[in-house]
């Protein structure tokens, strides 16, 4: 079993792994008896960023700051998104198949897009909406042979709201997605996060799975939150 772990903007795979040590241990403990040899893969995004001024951690100094695409949209569009999808498609091809993805912030937004692209009906949606100026179905996924994901854990994720990206979310995403949102998050707009939630529906009941934590724009580390992630993953792979 493999899980892809996608970091946020201005992070790296190594830094993300350091932040998720407690969760990684809990996942291995929960899934070990059912899925021997669980592997968590922490890639680093393709675009290097200039180091920010001020104090930085040793890990950030050693491994740098990286981004999957431009964090600040230009009129609602995200430059570099195509490159991000190409990078992730290469990971799926060369290191997959993956059962699911855990993503934070920008990585969560990308994770849900990837889940969408791997669903069986998505090419038709892109073809239909391309006629209305939407982006085409990414070529890097058109040639990719990878099964649909079994789950996504979206931590501080958000929707790409520009009409060009509508096909990612219309029809709604059916891959099971667990949304973690911080009640004190001042980085990601709550409306953007809730629009992502609304575009993800699980089962015939069309329910969404959302857990709020009391922190800000961070990966939650409380026992309740970590246990919820492990339970969600276990319930979707067993």
TrEMBL record:
Q: Does the keyword Hydrolase apply?
A: yes
* Keywords in alphabetical order: Hydrolase
Keyword Glycoprotein applies = no
GO annotation, cellular component aspect: cytoplasm; nucleus
- Gene Ontology MF term list: hydrolase activity
Q: Name one Pfam family in it.
A: FSH1
Q: Indicate the segments forming the Serine hydrolase domain, all copies.
A: 1-227
Q: Name one GO biological process term.
A: monocarboxylic acid biosynthetic process
Q: Which PANTHER family match?
A: ESTERASE OVCA2
Put simply, this protein is called Serine hydrolase domain-containing protein
Q: Which organism is it from?
A: Penicillium hordei
